[in-house]
Write the C-alpha coordinates for this entry.
Amino acid sequence: MTRVPPAFAIKSATKARQVLLRAADRLVPSEIALLDHSVAFTRPHLLAAVVEFGIPDQLADGPKNAEQLAGASGADADSLHRVLRAAATFGFVRLDKAGRFHNTRLTRALRADARFQTAEWCRYTASASVQQAWGGLSETVKSGESAFGRVHGMGMFEWFEAHPAEGRAFSRGLAGLTLMEAPAIVAAYPFPDDGVICDVAGGTGALLGEVLNARPRVKAILVEAPSVLDEARSYLSDIGVSERVEFLPGDFMTRVEAVADLYILKWILHDWSDEICRRILAAVKATMKPGSRLLIVEGEQDLHQVSPRFGPLDVHMMTVCDGGRERSLGEFHALLDSVGLFAGDVVRTATGLLLVEGLASQRA
Ligand SMILES: C[S@@+](CC[C@H](N)C(=O)[O-])C[C@H]1O[C@@H](n2cnc3c(N)ncnc32)[C@H](O)[C@@H]1O
Protein backbone atom coordinates (compact mmCIF):
# COMPACT_ATOMS: atom_id res chain seq x y z
CA MET A 1 0.00 0.00 0.00
CA THR A 2 1.23 3.50 -0.82
CA ARG A 3 2.34 5.40 2.29
CA VAL A 4 0.47 8.63 2.97
CA PRO A 5 2.33 11.57 4.54
CA PRO A 6 0.77 12.77 7.82
CA ALA A 7 -2.09 15.29 7.51
CA PHE A 8 -0.14 18.04 9.32
CA ALA A 9 2.72 17.78 6.78
CA ILE A 10 0.35 18.07 3.80
CA LYS A 11 -1.60 20.91 5.46
CA SER A 12 1.57 22.85 6.38
CA ALA A 13 3.06 22.54 2.88
CA THR A 14 -0.22 23.67 1.29
CA LYS A 15 -0.57 26.59 3.72
CA ALA A 16 3.07 27.65 3.23
CA ARG A 17 2.59 27.65 -0.56
CA GLN A 18 -0.47 29.92 -0.23
CA VAL A 19 1.40 32.28 2.10
CA LEU A 20 4.34 32.50 -0.34
CA LEU A 21 2.03 33.15 -3.31
CA ARG A 22 0.31 35.97 -1.38
CA ALA A 23 3.67 37.33 -0.23
CA ALA A 24 4.86 37.41 -3.86
CA ASP A 25 1.98 39.79 -4.66
CA ARG A 26 3.04 42.11 -1.84
CA LEU A 27 6.53 42.54 -3.29
CA VAL A 28 5.16 44.56 -6.23
CA PRO A 29 2.54 47.32 -6.66
CA SER A 30 -1.05 46.01 -6.66
CA GLU A 31 -1.51 46.89 -10.34
CA ILE A 32 1.48 44.78 -11.32
CA ALA A 33 0.22 41.86 -9.24
CA LEU A 34 -3.21 42.16 -10.87
CA LEU A 35 -1.71 42.39 -14.35
CA ASP A 36 0.08 39.16 -13.65
CA HIS A 37 -3.16 37.47 -12.51
CA SER A 38 -5.02 38.84 -15.55
CA VAL A 39 -2.71 37.00 -17.95
CA ALA A 40 -2.77 33.76 -15.96
CA PHE A 41 -5.22 32.51 -18.64
CA THR A 42 -2.10 31.78 -20.71
CA ARG A 43 -0.97 29.01 -18.36
CA PRO A 44 -3.42 26.21 -19.20
CA HIS A 45 -2.80 26.88 -22.91
CA LEU A 46 0.98 26.83 -22.52
CA LEU A 47 0.72 23.58 -20.57
CA ALA A 48 -1.55 22.09 -23.23
CA ALA A 49 0.94 23.09 -25.96
CA VAL A 50 3.83 21.49 -24.04
CA VAL A 51 1.74 18.32 -23.89
CA GLU A 52 0.38 18.43 -27.44
CA PHE A 53 3.83 18.76 -29.04
CA GLY A 54 5.17 15.95 -26.86
CA ILE A 55 7.86 18.19 -25.32
CA PRO A 56 8.26 16.25 -22.02
CA ASP A 57 9.01 13.00 -23.90
CA GLN A 58 11.13 14.69 -26.55
CA LEU A 59 13.31 16.24 -23.82
CA ALA A 60 13.59 13.04 -21.80
CA ASP A 61 17.00 12.18 -23.32
CA GLY A 62 18.44 15.67 -22.99
CA PRO A 63 18.03 19.29 -24.08
CA LYS A 64 16.92 20.29 -27.58
CA ASN A 65 16.30 23.54 -29.43
CA ALA A 66 12.97 24.55 -30.98
CA GLU A 67 14.01 23.45 -34.47
CA GLN A 68 14.79 19.93 -33.31
CA LEU A 69 11.57 19.82 -31.26
CA ALA A 70 9.44 21.25 -34.08
CA GLY A 71 10.87 18.80 -36.62
CA ALA A 72 9.72 15.82 -34.61
CA SER A 73 6.28 17.23 -33.74
CA GLY A 74 5.21 18.96 -36.95
CA ALA A 75 5.23 22.46 -35.44
CA ASP A 76 6.44 25.83 -36.70
CA ALA A 77 9.87 26.28 -35.04
CA ASP A 78 9.59 30.02 -34.36
CA SER A 79 6.11 29.71 -32.82
CA LEU A 80 7.16 26.71 -30.77
CA HIS A 81 10.25 28.55 -29.48
CA ARG A 82 8.12 31.50 -28.35
CA VAL A 83 5.55 29.26 -26.67
CA LEU A 84 8.23 27.28 -24.84
CA ARG A 85 10.09 30.47 -23.85
CA ALA A 86 6.83 31.72 -22.30
CA ALA A 87 6.28 28.31 -20.66
CA ALA A 88 9.77 28.64 -19.13
CA THR A 89 8.51 31.69 -17.18
CA PHE A 90 6.41 29.31 -15.09
CA GLY A 91 8.96 26.52 -14.87
CA PHE A 92 7.04 24.25 -17.28
CA VAL A 93 10.40 23.88 -19.14
CA ARG A 94 13.84 25.57 -18.74
CA LEU A 95 15.58 27.59 -21.45
CA ASP A 96 19.39 27.85 -21.43
CA LYS A 97 21.59 30.58 -22.91
CA ALA A 98 22.29 28.45 -26.01
CA GLY A 99 18.54 28.36 -26.83
CA ARG A 100 18.01 24.76 -25.76
CA PHE A 101 15.04 23.64 -23.71
CA HIS A 102 15.35 21.28 -20.75
CA ASN A 103 12.86 19.27 -18.76
CA THR A 104 12.14 20.46 -15.22
CA ARG A 105 10.54 18.68 -12.26
CA LEU A 106 7.17 19.92 -13.59
CA THR A 107 7.81 18.85 -17.19
CA ARG A 108 8.63 15.33 -16.05
CA ALA A 109 5.18 15.02 -14.42
CA LEU A 110 3.72 15.67 -17.90
CA ARG A 111 5.38 12.70 -19.62
CA ALA A 112 2.99 10.38 -21.44
CA ASP A 113 3.88 7.47 -19.12
CA ALA A 114 3.64 9.52 -15.88
CA ARG A 115 1.56 7.62 -13.33
CA PHE A 116 -0.96 10.37 -12.58
CA GLN A 117 -1.68 11.31 -16.21
CA THR A 118 -1.40 15.02 -15.45
CA ALA A 119 -0.88 15.68 -19.16
CA GLU A 120 -4.42 14.43 -19.83
CA TRP A 121 -5.81 16.69 -17.12
CA CYS A 122 -3.99 19.65 -18.74
CA ARG A 123 -5.49 18.74 -22.12
CA TYR A 124 -8.93 18.76 -20.51
CA THR A 125 -8.64 22.12 -18.70
CA ALA A 126 -7.35 23.87 -21.84
CA SER A 127 -9.92 22.28 -24.16
CA ALA A 128 -12.02 24.73 -26.19
CA SER A 129 -15.29 23.44 -24.69
CA VAL A 130 -14.14 24.24 -21.14
CA GLN A 131 -12.54 27.56 -22.06
CA GLN A 132 -15.62 28.71 -23.98
CA ALA A 133 -17.83 27.85 -21.01
CA TRP A 134 -15.58 29.86 -18.65
CA GLY A 135 -15.69 32.74 -21.15
CA GLY A 136 -19.35 33.31 -20.21
CA LEU A 137 -18.86 33.56 -16.44
CA SER A 138 -20.72 36.88 -16.03
CA GLU A 139 -23.75 35.47 -17.83
CA THR A 140 -23.59 32.40 -15.57
CA VAL A 141 -23.49 34.58 -12.47
CA LYS A 142 -26.46 36.62 -13.74
CA SER A 143 -28.64 33.64 -14.63
CA GLY A 144 -27.37 31.07 -12.13
CA GLU A 145 -27.40 28.49 -14.97
CA SER A 146 -24.54 26.28 -16.13
CA ALA A 147 -22.44 27.95 -18.84
CA PHE A 148 -21.59 24.63 -20.47
CA GLY A 149 -25.20 23.79 -21.38
CA ARG A 150 -25.86 27.34 -22.54
CA VAL A 151 -22.76 27.54 -24.74
CA HIS A 152 -22.71 23.98 -26.11
CA GLY A 153 -26.40 23.05 -26.07
CA MET A 154 -25.81 19.88 -24.04
CA GLY A 155 -24.46 18.76 -20.66
CA MET A 156 -20.78 17.97 -20.13
CA PHE A 157 -21.22 14.19 -20.01
CA GLU A 158 -23.31 14.18 -23.21
CA TRP A 159 -20.58 16.30 -24.78
CA PHE A 160 -17.99 13.69 -23.82
CA GLU A 161 -20.08 10.96 -25.49
CA ALA A 162 -20.16 13.07 -28.69
CA HIS A 163 -16.47 14.08 -28.44
CA PRO A 164 -14.67 10.90 -27.32
CA ALA A 165 -11.14 12.40 -27.40
CA GLU A 166 -12.19 15.05 -24.86
CA GLY A 167 -14.07 12.42 -22.86
CA ARG A 168 -10.90 10.31 -22.73
CA ALA A 169 -8.73 13.24 -21.62
CA PHE A 170 -11.24 13.99 -18.86
CA SER A 171 -11.60 10.42 -17.61
CA ARG A 172 -7.84 9.73 -17.74
CA GLY A 173 -6.96 13.05 -16.11
CA LEU A 174 -9.57 12.53 -13.43
CA ALA A 175 -8.39 8.95 -12.85
CA GLY A 176 -4.94 10.43 -12.16
CA LEU A 177 -6.37 12.84 -9.59
CA THR A 178 -8.27 9.97 -7.95
CA LEU A 179 -5.16 7.79 -7.98
CA MET A 180 -3.33 10.54 -6.08
CA GLU A 181 -6.13 10.69 -3.48
CA ALA A 182 -6.83 6.95 -3.25
CA PRO A 183 -4.10 5.94 -0.74
CA ALA A 184 -5.26 8.65 1.67
CA ILE A 185 -8.90 7.51 1.29
CA VAL A 186 -7.97 3.88 1.97
CA ALA A 187 -5.85 4.92 4.96
CA ALA A 188 -8.64 7.07 6.44
CA TYR A 189 -11.72 4.87 6.03
CA PRO A 190 -12.25 1.38 7.51
CA PHE A 191 -13.12 -0.42 4.27
CA PRO A 192 -14.48 -3.92 5.07
CA ASP A 193 -12.17 -6.95 4.73
CA ASP A 194 -14.89 -9.03 3.01
CA GLY A 195 -18.07 -8.53 1.05
CA VAL A 196 -18.92 -6.44 -1.98
CA ILE A 197 -18.12 -2.78 -2.65
CA CYS A 198 -19.92 -0.98 -5.44
CA ASP A 199 -18.36 2.19 -6.86
CA VAL A 200 -21.22 4.07 -8.49
CA ALA A 201 -19.85 6.07 -11.44
CA GLY A 202 -16.38 5.05 -10.32
CA GLY A 203 -14.70 6.29 -13.50
CA THR A 204 -11.93 4.05 -14.79
CA GLY A 205 -11.57 2.27 -11.43
CA ALA A 206 -8.71 4.22 -9.83
CA LEU A 207 -10.20 4.14 -6.32
CA LEU A 208 -11.55 0.58 -6.62
CA GLY A 209 -8.10 -0.61 -7.72
CA GLU A 210 -6.49 0.82 -4.57
CA VAL A 211 -9.23 -0.62 -2.33
CA LEU A 212 -9.04 -4.09 -3.96
CA ASN A 213 -5.25 -4.13 -3.60
CA ALA A 214 -5.57 -3.32 0.08
CA ARG A 215 -8.46 -5.78 0.70
CA PRO A 216 -7.67 -9.06 -1.13
CA ARG A 217 -10.94 -10.81 -0.15
CA VAL A 218 -13.26 -8.00 -1.24
CA LYS A 219 -15.26 -8.21 -4.50
CA ALA A 220 -16.41 -5.15 -6.41
CA ILE A 221 -18.99 -3.80 -8.81
CA LEU A 222 -18.18 -0.82 -11.00
CA VAL A 223 -21.22 1.01 -12.38
CA GLU A 224 -20.40 3.38 -15.25
CA ALA A 225 -21.23 4.57 -18.73
CA PRO A 226 -20.26 1.85 -21.29
CA SER A 227 -17.53 4.01 -22.92
CA VAL A 228 -15.78 4.50 -19.55
CA LEU A 229 -16.14 0.79 -18.61
CA ASP A 230 -13.84 -0.23 -21.50
CA GLU A 231 -11.00 1.89 -20.07
CA ALA A 232 -11.79 0.60 -16.56
CA ARG A 233 -11.57 -3.04 -17.69
CA SER A 234 -8.17 -2.47 -19.21
CA TYR A 235 -6.80 -0.52 -16.18
CA LEU A 236 -8.07 -2.97 -13.55
CA SER A 237 -6.82 -5.90 -15.59
CA ASP A 238 -3.36 -4.26 -15.87
CA ILE A 239 -3.14 -4.01 -12.08
CA GLY A 240 -4.36 -7.60 -11.69
CA VAL A 241 -7.69 -7.15 -9.89
CA SER A 242 -10.27 -7.26 -12.71
CA GLU A 243 -11.29 -10.84 -11.91
CA ARG A 244 -12.85 -9.59 -8.69
CA VAL A 245 -14.82 -6.86 -10.47
CA GLU A 246 -18.23 -6.95 -12.14
CA PHE A 247 -18.43 -4.22 -14.80
CA LEU A 248 -21.99 -2.98 -14.91
CA PRO A 249 -23.26 -0.42 -17.42
CA GLY A 250 -25.76 1.77 -15.61
CA ASP A 251 -27.43 5.13 -15.27
CA PHE A 252 -27.52 6.49 -11.74
CA MET A 253 -30.36 8.85 -12.67
CA THR A 254 -32.76 5.96 -12.88
CA ARG A 255 -31.71 2.71 -11.17
CA VAL A 256 -28.56 1.24 -9.70
CA GLU A 257 -29.02 -2.52 -9.74
CA ALA A 258 -26.10 -3.73 -7.69
CA VAL A 259 -26.30 -5.53 -4.38
CA ALA A 260 -23.37 -4.51 -2.18
CA ASP A 261 -22.37 -3.97 1.44
CA LEU A 262 -20.78 -0.61 0.73
CA TYR A 263 -21.55 1.87 -2.05
CA ILE A 264 -19.18 4.68 -3.01
CA LEU A 265 -20.10 7.97 -4.65
CA LYS A 266 -16.84 9.82 -5.20
CA TRP A 267 -16.84 13.25 -6.86
CA ILE A 268 -20.35 12.58 -8.18
CA LEU A 269 -22.62 14.81 -6.10
CA HIS A 270 -20.49 17.91 -6.78
CA ASP A 271 -21.42 17.58 -10.48
CA TRP A 272 -25.12 18.11 -9.80
CA SER A 273 -27.85 20.30 -8.28
CA ASP A 274 -29.50 19.30 -4.99
CA GLU A 275 -32.51 18.03 -6.93
CA ILE A 276 -30.44 15.67 -9.11
CA CYS A 277 -28.32 14.62 -6.10
CA ARG A 278 -31.54 13.50 -4.41
CA ARG A 279 -32.38 11.41 -7.49
CA ILE A 280 -28.94 9.79 -7.48
CA LEU A 281 -29.06 9.14 -3.73
CA ALA A 282 -32.58 7.74 -4.03
CA ALA A 283 -31.43 5.37 -6.81
CA VAL A 284 -28.60 4.11 -4.57
CA LYS A 285 -30.85 3.88 -1.52
CA ALA A 286 -33.37 1.78 -3.48
CA THR A 287 -30.76 -0.96 -3.95
CA MET A 288 -29.29 -0.81 -0.42
CA LYS A 289 -30.24 -3.56 2.01
CA PRO A 290 -30.56 -3.00 5.80
CA GLY A 291 -27.07 -2.66 7.27
CA SER A 292 -25.40 -1.50 4.06
CA ARG A 293 -23.51 1.75 3.90
CA LEU A 294 -22.89 4.54 1.42
CA LEU A 295 -19.63 6.44 1.39
CA ILE A 296 -19.71 9.93 -0.13
CA VAL A 297 -16.24 11.23 -1.03
CA GLU A 298 -16.09 14.94 -1.83
CA GLY A 299 -14.30 18.21 -1.21
CA GLU A 300 -15.54 20.41 1.62
CA GLN A 301 -16.63 24.00 1.14
CA ASP A 302 -18.26 25.85 4.02
CA LEU A 303 -20.31 28.92 3.11
CA HIS A 304 -18.00 31.48 4.70
CA GLN A 305 -14.67 29.69 4.51
CA VAL A 306 -12.07 30.55 1.88
CA SER A 307 -10.68 27.31 0.47
CA PRO A 308 -7.81 27.69 -2.05
CA ARG A 309 -8.56 24.22 -3.37
CA PHE A 310 -12.34 23.92 -3.30
CA GLY A 311 -13.35 27.57 -3.87
CA PRO A 312 -12.05 27.70 -7.47
CA LEU A 313 -13.28 24.14 -8.05
CA ASP A 314 -16.75 25.20 -6.86
CA VAL A 315 -16.88 27.85 -9.59
CA HIS A 316 -15.61 25.31 -12.14
CA MET A 317 -18.51 23.03 -11.14
CA MET A 318 -20.92 25.98 -11.45
CA THR A 319 -19.54 26.66 -14.94
CA VAL A 320 -19.25 23.22 -16.53
CA CYS A 321 -21.84 21.14 -14.65
CA ASP A 322 -25.59 21.32 -14.42
CA GLY A 323 -26.08 22.78 -10.94
CA GLY A 324 -22.69 21.46 -9.77
CA ARG A 325 -21.25 22.82 -6.53
CA GLU A 326 -18.91 22.01 -3.66
CA ARG A 327 -20.79 21.51 -0.39
CA SER A 328 -20.39 21.63 3.38
CA LEU A 329 -20.80 18.67 5.72
CA GLY A 330 -24.18 20.10 6.80
CA GLU A 331 -25.34 20.15 3.18
CA PHE A 332 -24.33 16.50 2.66
CA HIS A 333 -26.19 15.49 5.81
CA ALA A 334 -29.29 17.40 4.63
CA LEU A 335 -29.14 15.54 1.28
CA LEU A 336 -28.85 12.16 3.02
CA ASP A 337 -31.72 13.02 5.34
CA SER A 338 -33.92 14.14 2.43
CA VAL A 339 -33.87 10.63 0.91
CA GLY A 340 -34.20 8.80 4.22
CA LEU A 341 -30.57 7.75 4.69
CA PHE A 342 -29.08 8.08 8.19
CA ALA A 343 -25.87 9.98 8.91
CA GLY A 344 -23.01 7.67 9.90
CA ASP A 345 -19.35 8.44 10.58
CA VAL A 346 -17.49 11.42 9.13
CA VAL A 347 -13.77 11.25 8.39
CA ARG A 348 -11.35 13.66 6.71
CA THR A 349 -8.41 12.30 4.70
CA ALA A 350 -4.84 13.53 5.15
CA THR A 351 -5.22 15.24 1.76
CA GLY A 352 -8.33 17.15 2.90
CA LEU A 353 -11.21 15.19 1.34
CA LEU A 354 -14.41 14.71 3.30
CA LEU A 355 -15.76 11.16 3.74
CA VAL A 356 -19.43 11.12 4.77
CA GLU A 357 -21.23 7.88 5.56
CA GLY A 358 -24.91 7.35 4.84
CA LEU A 359 -26.59 4.34 6.46
CA ALA A 360 -29.56 2.37 5.16
CA SER A 361 -30.71 1.65 8.71
CA GLN A 362 -30.15 3.47 11.98
CA ARG A 363 -27.31 2.18 14.14
CA ALA A 364 -28.48 0.11 17.11
C1 LIG B 1 -16.49 13.52 -11.88
S1 LIG B 1 -16.46 11.90 -12.55
C2 LIG B 1 -16.03 10.95 -11.10
C3 LIG B 1 -15.44 9.59 -11.43
C4 LIG B 1 -14.92 8.81 -10.23
N1 LIG B 1 -15.95 8.56 -9.23
C5 LIG B 1 -13.73 9.51 -9.61
O1 LIG B 1 -13.90 10.17 -8.58
O2 LIG B 1 -12.64 9.42 -10.18
C6 LIG B 1 -18.13 11.57 -12.80
C7 LIG B 1 -18.42 10.23 -13.45
O3 LIG B 1 -19.83 10.07 -13.56
C8 LIG B 1 -20.10 9.29 -14.71
N2 LIG B 1 -21.49 9.55 -15.07
C9 LIG B 1 -22.05 10.70 -15.53
N3 LIG B 1 -23.37 10.56 -15.71
C10 LIG B 1 -23.68 9.28 -15.35
C11 LIG B 1 -24.90 8.54 -15.27
N4 LIG B 1 -26.07 9.10 -15.62
N5 LIG B 1 -24.86 7.26 -14.82
C12 LIG B 1 -23.67 6.69 -14.47
N6 LIG B 1 -22.48 7.35 -14.51
C13 LIG B 1 -22.48 8.62 -14.95
C14 LIG B 1 -19.10 9.81 -15.73
O4 LIG B 1 -18.86 8.86 -16.75
C15 LIG B 1 -17.87 10.08 -14.85
O5 LIG B 1 -16.97 9.00 -14.87
About this structure: The pocket of S-adenosylmethionine is lined by residues 157, 171, 174-175, 178, 201-203, 206, 224-225, 228, 250-253, 266-268, 271 (CB under 6 Å). Residues 26 and 191 are 46 Å apart (CA to CA).
